[in-house]
Design brief:
heterotrimer, A alpha/beta (452), B alpha+beta (131), C alpha/beta (485), A: 452 residues, seven-stranded mixed β-sheet, 17 strands, 15% strand, B: 131 residues, alpha+beta, three-stranded antiparallel β-sheet, 4 helices, 9 strands
């Protein structure tokens, strides 16, 4: 029987010890009118080889098209070591490290993870991770409202050039706390700084800045940060960790640095895998650590004075504070944190910086190749990190459909989220896209546009 | 039985209140409360100038295993806080009624002592809890 | 023996995994001037370091892990292998439906199977953990009342034995929490429920079997009371493993359920996540399900989004939840099939009741010994603590020394010095007997010389840690000046 070890003899002896005739009588506290005879619509069991065939067939059906989509999930190269080690049973099948003495492996990994994320973002402390970038952003907003004691406003300024799905998720998660996201309009693919004068001290608890923006463009982070601080607001940075070996990190923005940084850790060794599991990260200044949600690991000593690691500052959490907890979150994304930590250890600062520069170079190359085609324009003039927006003279959806028929995923159609832009497409070329891939995309697009 | 100064007043949430001569009140948590919490690791203090209504949560005391709100026993404005607790929260464990005071409040209205417990009633409450 | 921090290695890292190119263009004033403090270690050092760290963990693959309320059953390796097929890993979440029919069909079938095992009418897979499933459930309940113009319903009733996430979730959703006591027989205090249910009641959150390991026998009465008061019922699926194929939350009167796929459906806990907290609803709540989920129309599997479901509570993750976890749950369910699913609760409950009977026989204080254990049960060590000073925490640490992960300690909060023990169906009689012997040994030792138990663990990589120091002087990140561990 799959995954049940008992022999007939075991069952007989166990029932005798309990003092019942059969297994069925163990369910006699369930009122009879609620008992069911069995399940329906599940089907018969498949053997391991049958389910393998089925899943391989499903996977083959989806294929592996060449992907130029970014939009918050990036197809980077993942070294073999990462998942070979992360899926070792001792990491894979352990639980949350409540029994610290029996979980030093997971705890030390998380401590290393926290150290790496804090350093990448230029801030002082990090938690053990959250579900994904969007929920990390929502938690950062909650945290900022709790932490800003100079202001009672529950409004947060959020750029229109920030990831639209992140904004949607945050709205859902913040609704119950009556926290309101106020949209800052854009100008040329960047946050419009002319509108800032509409807001004054006390009007808002925090300003969010996404860097690089959803369009891949680069915000004037120093001005924005200093302006927000001058209004007694906190600054929440939403960033891509892959960019932080080359771009100035949130902790170094403006005079005082952003107060909280968050984002999606998926680029650090985690496959795009249909959107999850990913890993949200959250780092902040030391002064507001007790407002931070989620698990945190600390280094301490044992009774012999030997260094060790343990979950700490737990009094903030739901299992102790219940209805007054900082968040209802229980888990972090432990396994993903393990993979990300191994990835960062393998690459080192120079490795991550090289990947970042390659993505930058490839996307510029792609941009150049595509905008050389008549009818394709670059939408925003400003510099980009590793994504860019281009515009067509015709609906994006039909262009993408034709590219997909040629095995190319041409980008993310922005028409729905940004209807005022003219047929906009968000494109991205990571280090995984070769020069040949880029040529293939350009050739296909030329053909498609030429034919229409 | 833990210490209970006679001249102080108490709440069912185990805060103590000391009436100062200048009309302000000093507030802390009782010896019983600190014992129940265990060694304190952090105290979140209110800010000077904060105004609270009676029963508002106004500060947090935290041990490794528990975090407990301090509820403002009477309405008023915070005029002073015990900053020493920021680095040495264990002052509350060592001496809950004196060095471990948490904050001072300027009461909004005249204090209705009927609403609070005196030392005898609080002793009574503790002995009931022990049963 | 300590394992150094990865930062302590000072070698050349292997940074040539791909062909790289220099930056084309980034504004000068935005460039980073310092280097982030990332490790500099060789590939072999990285492999050794993390392999060694893994060996400093207890896990299901290496130890019996009877952690109550967490359902630490075997995580079949094949589920991992098939979820990590290259096509699944490289499928972009914003890719077209045409290039994801295999994946979407799999998700659709998983929705249907989860619907069947809970007796609900529709399922959304997006919640990324149990706590998010809870959030989705309460948010849907609120959305339902709002759609009825019933704006005063802001109270969520929660039993005092509930998981901490229940009240935390209610607060996050902007609700007030009303706690209801548990009676001494372990069931809910119905009188108090009748007093509390009324025009302000949004709903009740219940785990059944409860966190005390008991099936709530009055569930139908509770459902009537709450429904008559105008509230809805939320089922916390933490303990679904105990009733799989025996009873359906939908038939008990629940309007919304969440399932912990990382418990009942064996997806890995991963050292604390990723989880997955799919939600199922009856017809009343269908319009409010979180998006996206999968439907089958025009001969194609397609996403249902906000435009199809305008009253949806919206999105809970940037994309579609923890897809990789969902694939693992699907493989597990298909491999067990209908009979295998039913067998899960048979053996989970057999193991729990056997373990309870053995411990009762050995003289342990079983908190509800006259009740049937569901798939877990509570032992109170109050007497041991009183007579020897050895606490539940001490016993937990002594178990580690004997090669068993400790049960859940000090939860449920209602029972002093308690252990909550959940063996799951994947453990053999032999491993349960070993656990009983270990507990008996520890108890005997406690009466003989309590210091030995108070000193435990001694066989772990570290001994008991100074939690006060950790919280008082938080050391949360490595800094070079702090030197080596």
């Amino acid at each position: 029987m799959p995954f049940v070890p008992h022999t007939e003899n075991d069952i007989k002896k166990m029932l005798a010890t309990i003092g019942v005739e059969n297994v069925k009588s163990l369910f006699d506290e369930i009122p009879s009118e609620l008992r069911i005879d069995g399940l329906t619509n599940i089907g018969n069991a498949l053997t391991e080889s049958e389910i393998s065939d089925l899943m391989r067939q499903r996977a083959r059906q989806d294929g592996e098209p060449i992907c130029f989509i970014g939009g918050g999930a990036y197809d980077h190269y993942v070294p073999a070591v990462v998942w070979d080690i992360a899926t070792r049973g001792e990491f894979y099948s352990a639980y949350t490290p409540y029994q610290a003495e029996a979980s030093q492996g997971t705890l030390q990994v998380i401590y290393e993870f926290q150290s790496m994320l804090a350093s990448l973002t230029g801030l002082e402390v990090s938690n053990a991770s959250l579900y994904d970038g969007a929920t990390a952003f929502a938690e950062a907003c909650l945290m900022a409202v709790r932490a800003n004691r100079k202001c009672t406003s529950k409004k947060i300024l959020v750029p229109y050039v920030m990831h639209p799905l992140y904004r949607k998720v945050a709205e859902v998660l913040l609704k119950g706390q009556a926290i309101e996201l106020i949209e800052l309009p854009m100008l040329n693919g960047l946050t419009d700084q002319n509108v800032l004068t509409n807001f004054k001290n006390g009007d808002f608890a925090a300003l969010c800045i996404q860097q690089p923006s959803f369009f891949g463009t680069l915000e004037a982070v120093d001005n924005l940060t200093d302006w927000a601080h001058a209004q007694d607001a906190l600054v929440i940075a939403v960033t891509n960790p892959m960019s932080l070996a080359v771009l100035r990190p949130p902790g170094q923005w403006g005079d005082k640095g952003a107060d909280i940084a968050c984002g999606e850790g998926q680029p650090l060794g985690i496959p795009v895998s249909s959107g999850g599991p990913y890993i949200g990260f959250l780092t902040c200044k030391k002064t507001i650590v007790r407002q931070m949600p989620g698990r945190i690991v600390g280094r301490t000593i044992d009774i012999d004075g030997k260094p060790g690691f343990t979950l700490t500052l737990q009094a903030r959490e739901q299992h102790i504070r219940r209805s007054r907890a900082t968040s209802n979150i229980c888990t972090n994304q432990g396994l993903m944190a393990t993979a990300a930590t191994i990835y960062m250890s393998l690459m080192g600062a120079s490795g991550i910086s090289k990947i970042a520069s390659t993505c930058n170079a490839n996307t510029y190359k792609l941009l150049e190749a595509l905008t050389a085609i008549p009818g394709v324009e670059r939408t925003f003039p400003s510099a980009i990190f590793h994504e860019a927006v281009i515009s067509f003279k015709q609906p994006v959806s039909s262009v993408l459909e034709q590219l997909a028929l040629r095995g190319i995923l041409g980008g993310f159609d922005l028409s729905e989220s940004y209807p005022e832009l003219e047929n906009p497409l968000l494109i991205c070329a990571t280090e995984n896209r070769s020069d040949a891939d880029i040529r293939m995309y350009a050739d296909a697009l030329r053909e498609i546009l030429g034919a229409s | 039985m833990s210490e209970i100064p006679n001249t102080f007043y108490y709440t069912t949430d185990h805060e103590w209140i000391k009436l100062e001569e200048d009309g302000d009140v000093t507030i802390g948590i009782t010896d019983h409360a600190q014992e129940a919490l265990g060694e304190l690791v952090f105290v979140e203090l209110p800010a000077i100038g904060d105004s609270f209504l009676a029963n508002d949560a106004c500060a947090v005391v935290e041990s490794v295993k528990a975090a407990s709100d301090i509820y403002c026993p009477i309405a008023g404005e915070v005029v002073s806080i015990n900053e020493a607790l920021q680095d040495t929260p264990e002052l509350i464990n060592q001496n809950a009624y004196y060095d471990g005071w948490v904050f001072k409040l300027k009461p909004q209205n005249s204090i209705d002592l009927e609403e609070l417990m005196n030392a005898d009633s609080y002793k009574q409450l503790l002995s009931e809890l022990e049963d | 023996m300590t394992e150094p921090l990865i930062f302590d290695y000072q070698s050349t890292s292997r940074d040539n995994f791909v062909v790289t190119k220099p930056l084309t263009e980034l504004p000068e004033d935005l460039l980073r001037e310092d280097q982030p403090l990332l490790p500099s270690a060789s590939e072999l050092e990285v492999v050794r370091h993390y392999t060694r760290l893994s060996q400093r963990n207890f896990s299901i693959d290496t130890e019996f892990y009877p952690l109550g309320s967490c359902t630490m059953k075997y995580n079949p390796r094949i589920c991992n292998r098939l979820a990590m097929l290259p096509e699944f890993l490289s499928r972009h979440p914003l890719g077209p439906e045409e290039h994801g029919q295999g994946y979407l069909q799999t998700m659709f079938e998983l929705q249907e199977m989860l619907q069947s095992v809970t007796g609900m009418e529709a399922v959304s897979l997006t919640p990324m953990a149990g706590a998010q499933g809870e959030f989705a459930g309460v948010a849907m309940i609120r959305a339902y009342h709002e759609s009825q113009g019933d704006l005063e319903r802001t109270e969520i009733i929660v039993p005092d034995a509930a998981h901490g996430t229940n009240p935390a979730t209610a607060t996050m959703c902007g609700c007030d929490v009303v706690e209801i006591p548990t009676r001494s027989d372990g069931d809910l205090d119905i009188e108090k429920l009748i007093e509390s249910a009324g025009p302000k009641t949004a709903g009740i959150m219940l785990t059944n079997p409860s966190t005390l390991g008991l099936f709530e026998r009055q569930i139908s009465i509770i459902a009537d009371i709450v429904h008559q008061a105008g509230g809805l019922l939320y089922y916390d699926g933490a303990n679904l493993n105990a009733i799989l194929g025996k009873a359906l939350p939908g038939e008990m009167g629940f309007d919304v359920v969440h399932m912990n796929l990382h418990k009942t459906f064996s997806t890995p806990h991963g050292g604390g996540g990723p989880g997955s907290g799919a939600v199922g609803v009856n017809n009343k709540l269908k319009p409010f399900l979180p998006v996206p989920f999968v439907t089958h129309r025009n001969n194609q599997f397609q996403w249902v989004t906000e435009s199809d479901l305008p009253e949806s509570i919206g999105r809970l993750s940037a994309f579609m939840g923890n897809s990789g976890v969902l694939l693992r749950a699907y493989v597990y369910m298909r491999m067990l099939g209908q009979k295998g699913m039913e067998r899960v609760s048979d053996f989970a409950v057999l193991n729990a009741n056997y373990l309870m009977a053995r411990l009762l026989e050995a003289g342990f204080d079983i908190t509800f010994s006259d009740r049937r254990a569901s798939h877990e049960f509570v032992v109170s060590l109050k007497q041991l603590t009183r007579e020897t000073g050895v606490t539940a925490m001490d016993v937990a640490k002594a178990l580690l020394d004997k090669g068993f992960h400790a049960p859940t300690t000090y939860f449920p909060l209602l029972v002093p010095e308690c252990l909550l023990i959940e063996p799951t169906e994947s453990e053999s009689r032999r491993s349960l007997d070993g656990f009983v012997s270990a507990l008996i040994d520890i108890r005997d030792q406690a009466y003989e010389d309590p210091r030995v138990i108070k000193d435990a663990p001694i066989n772990m990589p570290v001994r008991r840690l100074d939690d006060v120091r950790a919280a008082k002087h938080p050391d949360l990140i490595w800094q070079p000046e702090k030197g080596k561990v």
